[in-house]
Design goal:
single chain, alpha/beta, 5-stranded parallel β-sheet, two-stranded antiparallel ribbon, 8 helices, 7 strands, binds BIS(adenosine)-5'-pentaphosphate, binds zinc ion, Adenylat_kinase_CS, ATP binding
């Protein structure tokens, strides 16, 4: 399957992705994770992306289209993929269509993580992540076995620099202004399944599975 996950910051894209990935053996491409890795490694790409990310604004279409184009060439992505956080502008969506068309393929489904903005601050400010794997925890909703420590590796967890109430406001604004039109773009093609993302994680998983088992 070729899937796109779209939804505001904190809607649960990164939480559901590994579950879908394991069930369908897809590759998980999260532009946010890739950009954070580039920022941490201070690569030229990371240096260019950092300022926008810290402010909660989108980085340029050319930069993210470039990383996705490169990442999708991986052999593990040939059978299917989950795009988490991409495309986020209509320009990105058009570029993706073009890329896939050149390979003779297309997106199967767009999962729209629908949730009220008011719930998101608590989710974002309570999040802790294990940077190298992308595993995500929450102090209240999904606590690690040992506080501040990744369950699998025992390595320390960190908080994202953009996970403040302040930066969340710009991220939400970018979502409504630039990414909601992407949902319309795919709705017109009849490709969108809307999920109730305010439900507890396990219930959202069940909803995702329902959609993915449909023909
Ligand atoms: P990115 O990393 O994509 O961040 P985002 O879209 O803001 O999404 P988040 O990762 O914050 O949310 P999520 O939906 O994955 O939530 P999660 O599952 O972790 O992008 C970061 C930045 O990179 C952007 O601002 C931009 O600058 C740049 N960027 C990235 N892609 C780009 C692109 N294509 N174009 C341009 N710029 C780009 O859940 C959040 C928390 O809630 C966790 O703690 C989790 O445990 C908890 N939780 C999850 N589900 C539930 C639930 N059902 N109930 C209760 N708690 C839950
Ligand atoms: Zn995420």
């Amino acid at each position: 399957k070729r899937l796109i996950l779209v939804g505001p910051p904190g809607s649960g894209k990164g939480t559901q992705s590994p579950i879908i990935k394991d069930e369908y053996c897809l590759c998980h491409l999260a532009t946010g994770d890739m950009l954070r890795a580039a920022v941490a490694a201070k690569t030229p790409l990371g240096v260019k992306a950092k300022e926008a990310m810290d402010k909660g604004e989108l980085v340029s279409d050319d930069l993210v289209v470039g990383i996705i184009d490169e990442a999708m060439k991986k052999p593990s992505c040939q059978k299917g993929f989950i795009l988490d956080g991409f495309p986020r502008t209509v320009v990105q969506a058009e570029k993706l269509d073009e890329m896939l068309k050149n390979q003779g393929s297309k997106v199967d489904k767009v999962l729209n993580f629908s949730i009220d903005d008011a719930i998101l601050e608590e989710r974002i400010t309570g999040r802790w992540i294990h940077p190298s794997s992308g595993r995500t925890y929450h102090t209240k909703f999904a606590p690690p076995k040992v506080q501040g420590v990744d369950d699998v590796t025992g390595e320390p967890l960190i908080q994202r620099k953009d996970d403040t109430a302040e930066v969340l406001k710009s991220r939400l604004e970018a979502f409504h202004r630039q990414t909601e039109p992407v949902i319309d773009y795919y709705s017109k093609k009849g490709m969108v399944a809307t999920l109730p993302a305010e439900k507890p994680p396990k219930e959202v998983t069940v909803e995702v599975q329902k959609v993915l088992s449909e023909k």
